[in-house]
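Lecture notes, unit on protein representations.

Consider one protein chain, 163 amino acids long.
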Amino acid sequence: MVSKRIDIRKEIGKRMIKKLEILLVEDNLIDVEFIRETLNALKINYSLHIIDNGEDAMNFLYKLGPYITVPSPDFIILDLNLPKKDGREVLIEIKHHDDFKLIPVVILTSSRDANDIKMVYDNYANCYLTKPINIIKFKKTIKSLKKFWLSIDKVQKVKSDIQ
Protein backbone atom coordinates (compact mmCIF):
# COMPACT_ATOMS: atom_id res chain seq x y z
CA MET A 1 0.00 0.00 0.00
CA VAL A 2 2.82 2.43 0.79
CA SER A 3 4.46 1.69 -2.55
CA LYS A 4 1.22 2.56 -4.35
CA ARG A 5 1.12 5.93 -2.60
CA ILE A 6 4.67 6.66 -3.63
CA ASP A 7 3.88 5.74 -7.22
CA ILE A 8 0.80 7.97 -7.18
CA ARG A 9 2.79 10.87 -5.73
CA LYS A 10 5.46 10.45 -8.38
CA GLU A 11 2.82 10.40 -11.09
CA ILE A 12 1.14 13.53 -9.72
CA GLY A 13 4.53 15.22 -9.47
CA LYS A 14 5.28 14.43 -13.12
CA ARG A 15 1.99 15.97 -14.22
CA MET A 16 2.58 19.10 -12.17
CA ILE A 17 5.92 19.92 -13.79
CA LYS A 18 5.46 23.37 -15.22
CA LYS A 19 6.21 24.10 -18.81
CA LEU A 20 8.76 26.80 -19.40
CA GLU A 21 6.91 29.67 -21.08
CA ILE A 22 9.28 31.22 -23.63
CA LEU A 23 8.47 34.47 -25.40
CA LEU A 24 10.42 34.72 -28.66
CA VAL A 25 10.38 38.21 -30.17
CA GLU A 26 11.79 37.71 -33.66
CA ASP A 27 10.64 38.94 -37.06
CA ASN A 28 12.82 36.67 -39.23
CA LEU A 29 10.79 33.52 -39.98
CA ILE A 30 13.89 31.49 -40.85
CA ASP A 31 15.45 32.30 -37.47
CA VAL A 32 12.16 31.42 -35.75
CA GLU A 33 12.20 28.01 -37.41
CA PHE A 34 15.87 27.40 -36.49
CA ILE A 35 15.09 28.26 -32.88
CA ARG A 36 11.95 26.12 -32.77
CA GLU A 37 13.73 23.14 -34.40
CA THR A 38 16.62 23.35 -31.99
CA LEU A 39 14.40 23.68 -28.91
CA ASN A 40 12.40 20.64 -30.03
CA ALA A 41 15.59 18.63 -30.48
CA LEU A 42 16.72 19.57 -26.97
CA LYS A 43 13.58 18.01 -25.48
CA ILE A 44 12.75 20.94 -23.24
CA ASN A 45 9.31 21.05 -21.64
CA TYR A 46 8.29 24.41 -23.06
CA SER A 47 5.66 26.49 -24.81
CA LEU A 48 6.97 28.93 -27.40
CA HIS A 49 5.07 32.16 -27.96
CA ILE A 50 6.26 33.93 -31.10
CA ILE A 51 5.80 37.65 -31.61
CA ASP A 52 7.22 39.40 -34.67
CA ASN A 53 7.36 43.03 -33.50
CA GLY A 54 8.17 45.04 -30.40
CA GLU A 55 4.76 46.64 -30.02
CA ASP A 56 2.97 43.28 -29.84
CA ALA A 57 5.68 41.96 -27.51
CA MET A 58 4.73 44.63 -24.98
CA ASN A 59 1.02 43.96 -25.56
CA PHE A 60 1.75 40.29 -24.82
CA LEU A 61 3.50 41.19 -21.57
CA TYR A 62 0.76 43.63 -20.52
CA LYS A 63 -1.89 41.09 -21.66
CA LEU A 64 -3.64 43.59 -23.90
CA GLY A 65 -5.94 42.96 -26.86
CA PRO A 66 -5.62 39.43 -28.24
CA TYR A 67 -3.09 38.55 -25.53
CA ILE A 68 -5.43 38.89 -22.55
CA THR A 69 -5.29 35.17 -21.68
CA VAL A 70 -1.65 34.38 -22.47
CA PRO A 71 0.60 33.06 -19.71
CA SER A 72 3.34 35.26 -18.34
CA PRO A 73 6.69 34.28 -19.85
CA ASP A 74 9.42 32.73 -17.74
CA PHE A 75 12.05 33.67 -20.28
CA ILE A 76 12.36 36.07 -23.22
CA ILE A 77 14.51 35.76 -26.34
CA LEU A 78 14.61 39.20 -27.94
CA ASP A 79 15.94 40.43 -31.27
CA LEU A 80 17.06 44.07 -31.36
CA ASN A 81 16.03 44.96 -34.90
CA LEU A 82 12.24 44.75 -34.87
CA PRO A 83 9.41 46.55 -36.64
CA LYS A 84 6.95 48.87 -34.88
CA LYS A 85 8.96 49.08 -31.64
CA ASP A 86 12.67 48.43 -31.61
CA GLY A 87 14.05 45.63 -29.42
CA ARG A 88 16.18 48.17 -27.54
CA GLU A 89 13.03 50.03 -26.49
CA VAL A 90 11.35 46.76 -25.54
CA LEU A 91 14.31 45.77 -23.36
CA ILE A 92 14.30 49.13 -21.57
CA GLU A 93 10.57 48.89 -20.91
CA ILE A 94 10.83 45.31 -19.65
CA LYS A 95 13.77 45.88 -17.35
CA HIS A 96 12.37 49.11 -15.90
CA HIS A 97 8.91 47.73 -15.14
CA ASP A 98 8.35 46.14 -11.73
CA ASP A 99 6.19 43.32 -13.12
CA PHE A 100 8.66 42.28 -15.83
CA LYS A 101 12.18 43.18 -14.69
CA LEU A 102 12.88 39.77 -13.14
CA ILE A 103 12.15 37.88 -16.36
CA PRO A 104 15.47 36.76 -17.87
CA VAL A 105 15.98 38.42 -21.26
CA VAL A 106 18.50 37.03 -23.72
CA ILE A 107 19.30 39.22 -26.68
CA LEU A 108 19.72 37.16 -29.86
CA THR A 109 20.59 39.50 -32.70
CA SER A 110 22.70 39.90 -35.81
CA SER A 111 24.19 43.13 -34.43
CA ARG A 112 27.81 42.96 -33.38
CA ASP A 113 27.91 46.68 -32.64
CA ALA A 114 29.80 47.51 -29.42
CA ASN A 115 27.28 50.27 -28.66
CA ASP A 116 24.41 47.76 -28.80
CA ILE A 117 26.25 45.37 -26.50
CA LYS A 118 26.95 48.14 -23.99
CA MET A 119 23.39 49.44 -24.21
CA VAL A 120 21.75 46.08 -23.52
CA TYR A 121 23.95 45.34 -20.54
CA ASP A 122 23.44 48.88 -19.23
CA ASN A 123 19.73 48.05 -19.35
CA TYR A 124 20.05 44.73 -17.51
CA ALA A 125 19.85 42.18 -20.32
CA ASN A 126 20.87 38.81 -18.96
CA CYS A 127 22.85 37.74 -22.01
CA TYR A 128 23.87 38.98 -25.48
CA LEU A 129 24.29 36.45 -28.29
CA THR A 130 24.97 37.22 -31.92
CA LYS A 131 23.24 35.13 -34.57
CA PRO A 132 25.73 33.02 -36.47
CA ILE A 133 25.31 32.95 -40.22
CA ASN A 134 25.48 29.18 -40.73
CA ILE A 135 22.80 26.83 -39.40
CA ILE A 136 25.15 24.53 -37.48
CA LYS A 137 26.62 27.40 -35.48
CA PHE A 138 23.12 28.89 -35.04
CA LYS A 139 21.88 25.62 -33.51
CA LYS A 140 24.96 25.46 -31.24
CA THR A 141 24.12 28.97 -30.03
CA ILE A 142 20.58 27.90 -29.13
CA LYS A 143 21.93 24.78 -27.41
CA SER A 144 24.17 27.01 -25.31
CA LEU A 145 21.02 28.82 -24.15
CA LYS A 146 19.64 25.54 -22.86
CA LYS A 147 22.78 24.69 -20.95
CA PHE A 148 22.89 28.03 -19.19
CA TRP A 149 19.32 29.35 -19.11
CA LEU A 150 16.57 27.07 -20.33
CA SER A 151 15.82 25.04 -17.27
CA ILE A 152 12.65 25.83 -15.37
CA ASP A 153 14.53 25.15 -12.13
CA LYS A 154 17.20 27.73 -13.01
CA VAL A 155 14.68 30.33 -14.14
CA GLN A 156 12.54 29.90 -11.03
CA LYS A 157 15.63 30.01 -8.79
CA VAL A 158 16.82 33.27 -10.38
CA LYS A 159 13.39 34.80 -9.80
CA SER A 160 13.15 33.61 -6.18
CA ASP A 161 16.73 34.68 -5.34
CA ILE A 162 16.05 38.20 -6.59
CA GLN A 163 12.64 38.58 -4.93
